[in-house]
Write a structure and sequence with these properties.
Four copies of one chain form a homotetramer. Chain A is α/β, with parallel strands linked by helices. The first copy, chain A, has one domain: Alpha-Beta Barrel (TIM Barrel), CATH 3.20.20. Chain A is 45% helix and 12% strand. Chain A contains twelve helices and eight strands. Chain A has helices at residues 25-34, 54-71, 85-97, 116-127, 141-144, 150-160, 174-182, 198-202, 218-229, 233-252, 258-266, 282-294; strands at residues 5-8, 39-42, 75-79, 102-106, 135-139, 164-169, 189-192, 208-211. An eight-stranded parallel beta sheet of chain A has the order 7-6-5-4-3-2-1-8. Chain A starts with a strand and ends in a 10-residue tail after the last helix. Chains in contact: A-B, A-D, B-C, C-D. Chains A and B meet through helix 7, helix 8 and helix 10 of A and helix 7, helix 8 and helix 10 of B.
Chain lengths: 304, 304, 304, 304
């Protein structure tokens, strides 16, 4: 059964010194739930998984799953990917013990797999350690530098990763994406990973996306999906344009860390990003907040 | 009034020695017309404009416009872009004298404009030589190496290129594309240039595309557009998948020159591509033709 | 017999409207001669060959060769490369008629040759039109986008381009460069094309370089070569560092067009670069000139 | 006092299952010492640091330092770099406790620092945890994707990283490299990291290199350095060409893992590389070994 709805990639709450504030995670879960988000893709790019220690990633997982065991409304997918399969396996086993709904893997991003076969073999090595868990592959070549076609990956992975569930696809190759949707009669779940282009993926048949802006603007995207489902394309396009206007401020104010500025704006402050990511200064935040207000989309942000 | 329908980027008919066969152009025009193609984007990438001499490009223009003056069904857009504005202007003036419907410009691709302002100024220099002609910008960063955002380009170009009509957009940045569609209340015509992703552009509101596969598979795409307009998305997706399957053979058999192999296959042989483009060998063509037959889409190819 | 000494890639003298000032070319020839420059690589990147029309390139050639026939001190190499072999051949034939010492070819830079064989075949098509002329290949992947290894190119070109004389190598792959120097017992002349790294190429055995800074700082490099030949490496390194300091201002003030600012500084004004290249503003030139003065290398610039 | 001589980046010895064979490390130390290698840059690219767990990296450090405490001939530099400064600090502290001679840091390679300042701040965060230890920065943009100029990095790092000792420079930007050599009167040690271009770096003044081929061909490079120091450039060039011929087989047989095939060839078998790196098959090894024999350089390989 495939996911229907938005999966947020949560930020990792931190204090002023850059330490993880684990105890905010339960409230984060409730915040997502309240905004009808159906999944939390934790320890991902947005969650700064690579900037955390293995120990921190595990503790974060424990807090998310503590809540998901109670509530079940938001399913937890844990990105255990990295460059060392030894550490990925360790992390995957811990995820399984703690009751995540699924794990996700990343292409190793120092030594890059040269082809789909190598990538599939690397993933298989981790996936076979948790045969009972669904496994997603997280395709984000702009950060990993691994540009393997996902259709080729599925062809290689299908026979050797029986617990492969699908792909979080964060790349603009819609030709490859549609081919993956159709592969093996739609066996694999294709989760779209570019919030600014969701409409162009919906028309290809996806029913779910994973993204960072679903943390703070879930209502916008649920309206967009509704408009699309109703065949009201002009409305859907205008909502997508609003999403783009919002996302353009990410680039303008320094990139991924602006996401935490949006969280502060909507009232769920998660602190700042760790180095090497740069955060905006206090005076920049003021200008940023003015620009956000000028977007005039208060009712489209997530509610506390 | 914006274009509705497919614009083909014609191949340049050549003989076995690589000389242009000008006298086939009139028949080519009729072939496009018969398949309801509404425009011919000549001397473009598909037309090997950069591999031709200025003299050849002009003679090709003369043959296309000779026919368009008689028939008016297929409008002729001539790519006059290049690296020297002196030659672009010379070519633009010749185009105007011969009655093209519009010209198109390309980002200079040796010295690459570093920002939107420089690109707009280069284009303005040519556009102002033919103030009566609509001018399209042809955005194809994978070949030109010029990655300027088209939204930024429109902002710079709008005040200094009054005859700017729109953009042929051959790039997968749908966020930028939608922003251009919405720019100045939709003033500019946004022609989609990636045939394999047409569906994802239709949903954003484009009503026309420019591409090479519209030369030989126009019926496929007209069915796709019709399905989309009727809200029959499963059919539209299946047709887009067929288009992808067809396009995948381009990559498999050596790239852009495979387009001429498709032309041979559908019965309108245009010879081969000039060096430095590589053409498939005779025995490879046989295998290629078998694979095309196996696509089982005879009725979706253009008809002689 | 191989070249010994510096080959300048001349700028194209232009007036304020961007028209070529052909009549300054003879004085330019004498300027190079006076500074012991042994060759002029005309219509290259520095000469804005791609921004000129074919007609302009030819007229420039005529002016350079008019002088070289009288004086013979500076040999003229004409870059006839481009994307269309038809125009390259036309240009090569004109070069031969006008008595250039050699021509040079460029990798076609719109459709990029995918491998060494295709590149060699493209070059052969032009070279065979002028069998009596030495032909250089100009390797500058940062501008052409063609990253073929030159060792592979030589292997493919050697049997099919009998008049291949060597390579102008403008790329930092010293492993490939040294392999080319040793190929076929040093048959091919390897001209180094990165002025800022000349010392690292001299140690590998090259005896000549082609560059833009040899237009205005030939004495600096002749001293560097002399120091290297005398085994005075600390001096050679300091001179190379001065060259780097000088070249760093190119980047700081906008790139290639800063070369013309240097020409103005040393007293041989060639005007500005054509669009799409950006030139510095008048007030920027003042700051630039101050920074050049602060380099304290007056005696190392070329003399009028 | 700066390093004089070769620093090897050791491979990590593994058994057939890909487990680390720690007990071979002492013999590895002696092998390097016997071949006059003066340093071991452990847990680097060659050592598959990113493919190991933190625990494995630490245990490897313990084995190398166990021997260096006894012998002191080969100094141990430990790469503690990664994407999480928390784990880097943990590793750096462990390195200090175990008596390494120095640590090295890498640009974080998932979120890439956008400029020199961010990179320096990231490094400072780790370096300040071990103020008594010399710190090298390991510059290898082809793997990290961080293309910051090292001159800019030194300018930012000098005031905030007092224990910065120098840079392992694995990139072909000789202009930047020479500028770093001259920065602050040569304060920082510049270790060259491209074995195939060592000669072009020696002429710029470096006296040491860090590389993988110094593991198995140290005598070749010591002869090259000797020839250079004696002013016998033809011999130095021929030896560099031999090094290139040897290194070209790395590319031909699959890249970095071919280094372990060379180790097997010279008699110090370290097993294979972990996934995602691909290793050659047994039958490929036979062909590889033949090609190595044909290089005819037996006496230039390291001796057991």
């Amino acid at each position: 059964m495939k996911t229907e709805g938005l999966i947020a990639a949560p930020f990792t709450p931190m204090d002023e010194k850059g330490n993880v504030v684990y105890e905010r995670i339960e409230a984060y879960y409730d915040f997502l739930e309240k905004n009808k988000v159906v999944g939390a893709f934790i320890n991902g790019s947005t969650g700064e998984g690579v900037s955390l220690s293995q120990h921190e990633r595990m503790k974060i997982t424990e807090h998310w799953t503590a809540r998901s065991k109670q509530k079940k409304s938001v399913k937890v997918i844990n990105l255990v990917g990295g460059t060392s399969y030894v550490e990925c396996i360790e992390n995957a086993l811990h995820s399984a013990q703690n009751g995540v709904a699924a794990i996700a893997l990343l292409a190793p991003f120092y030594f890059k797999p040269g082809n789909a076969r190598q990538l599939a073999e690397f993933c298989a090595r981790v996936a076979e350690a948790v045969p009972q868990l669904p496994v997603y592959f997280y395709h984000i070549p702009v950060l990993t530098g691994c540009n393997v076609s996902m259709l080729d990956f599925l062809k290689e992975a299908a026979p050797i990763i029986p617990n492969l569930a699908g792909i979080k696809y964060t790349h603009e190759d819609f030709m490859d994406f549609l081919s993956c949707i159709h592969f093996m009669d739609g066996k694999y779940e294709m989760l779209w990973g570019r919030d600014e282009n969701l409409l162009s993926a919906l028309v290809l048949g996806t029913r779910s996306g994973v993204g960072s802006t679903y943390n703070y603007a879930a209502p916008l995207y649920y309206k967009l999906i509704e408009a699309f489902d109703n065949g009201d394309l002009p409305l859907a396009r205008n909502l997508q344009q609003l999403s783009i206007n919002m996302i353009r401020l990410l680039g303008k104010y320094g990139g991924i860390s602006t996401g935490k500025a949006y969280m502060k704006y909507v009232g769920f402050d998660c602190g700042e990003f760790r180095l090497p990511v740069k955060n905006m200064r206090h005076d920049e935040y003021k200008k940023f907040a003015e620009e956000v207000r000028a977007l005039n989309m208060a009712e489209l942000f997530s509610k506390l």
